[in-house]
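Researcher: Sequence recovery benchmark, item below. Answer with residues only.
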């Protein structure tokens, strides 16, 4: 019999959860996180939630970081660099994780410093 090569083939470890993470639903904080356009996110597919990301895309871009450029319904449009090209991926919030960049940390530190100087 011919070997099946479906969209989730070869993802035994990639699309599986740890022992204590199994089951549905995902943490509510992950689903309701207030993403804004311009935020940086990591694509971390939730294998227990089958909608919201196509599995070939999930496999190729697993762990990649991108920038949110738009919102369509419940899903976000994430811009990801793939080699020398930029690609748009439509992903629901269950499969996203916020990423703090060095630039965001610098801005936050500058705002805190300016607040301290105003209060002093």
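Model:
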């Amino acid at each position: 019999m011919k070997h099946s090569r479906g969209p989730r083939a070869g993802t035994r470890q990639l699309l599986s959860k740890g022992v204590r993470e199994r089951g549905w639903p995902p943490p509510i904080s992950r689903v309701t996180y207030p993403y804004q356009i311009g935020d940086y996110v990591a694509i971390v597919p939730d294998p227990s939630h089958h909608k919201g990301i196509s599995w070939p895309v999930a496999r190729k871009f697993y762990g990649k970081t991108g920038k949110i450029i738009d919102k369509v319904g419940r899903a976000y449009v994430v811009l990801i660099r793939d080699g020398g090209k930029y690609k748009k991926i439509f992903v629901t919030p269950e499969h996203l994780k916020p990423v703090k960049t060095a630039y965001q940390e610098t801005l936050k530190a500058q705002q805190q410093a300016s607040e301290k100087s105003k209060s002093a």
